[in-house]
Amino acid sequence: MNRLLVTLLFIAVVLGIGLLIGISNPPGEWYQSLVKPAFNPPNWIFAPVWSALYMMIGFVGARLFLDHPRSSAMRLWLAQLLLNFAWSPMFFGFHQVELALVVILALGVCILLFIAMAMKRDRLSAMLFIPYGVWVAFATLLNGAIMILN
């Protein structure tokens, strides 16, 4: 299969599912009623940040699929994606702030493990996951602060 086609397909699927989950689990009135920390960013920032991150995640997934499809890195990539996709329904859909924190902590661990593992074989993929890891660390802090404040 053509590398470009696989890459575009991975990006489209990851971005598409991410956007669908976001649309299906909007913050809504419940989220608006929560006490949030002073460092809570404006709501408009989340969609463009996540869109860019999902494109990078899809690009990395395609690289792994094409070059190391049965690797531990590919399994970690899949695990982080499942955890990523589980967070919004857990937090916004089911209003389970504590369980969402557990999910996002596990996500952060998967991202860190992926970066460490990929650094040896595919430095570009590892580097592309660093902004993702930073954003998830910030989101973890935000999730924890919301849990404490509410």
Automatic annotation (TrEMBL):
<dbReference type="GO" id="GO:0016301">
    <property type="term" value="F:kinase activity"/>
</dbReference>
<keyword id="KW-0472">Membrane</keyword>
<keyword id="KW-1133">Transmembrane helix</keyword>
<dbReference type="Pfam" id="PF03073">
    <property type="entry name" value="TspO_MBR"/>
</dbReference>
<feature type="transmembrane region" description="Helical">
    <location>
        <begin position="100"/>
        <end position="119"/>
    </location>
</feature>
<keyword id="KW-0808">Transferase</keyword>
<comment type="similarity">
    <text>Belongs to the TspO/BZRP family.</text>
</comment>
<keyword id="KW-0812">Transmembrane</keyword>
<feature type="transmembrane region" description="Helical">
    <location>
        <begin position="77"/>
        <end position="94"/>
    </location>
</feature>
<keyword id="KW-0418">Kinase</keyword>
<feature type="transmembrane region" description="Helical">
    <location>
        <begin position="44"/>
        <end position="65"/>
    </location>
</feature>
<dbReference type="InterPro" id="IPR038330">
    <property type="entry name" value="TspO/MBR-related_sf"/>
</dbReference>
<feature type="transmembrane region" description="Helical">
    <location>
        <begin position="126"/>
        <end position="149"/>
    </location>
</feature>
<protein>
    <submittedName>
        <fullName>Sensor histidine kinase</fullName>
    </submittedName>
</protein>
<dbReference type="InterPro" id="IPR004307">
    <property type="entry name" value="TspO_MBR"/>
</dbReference>
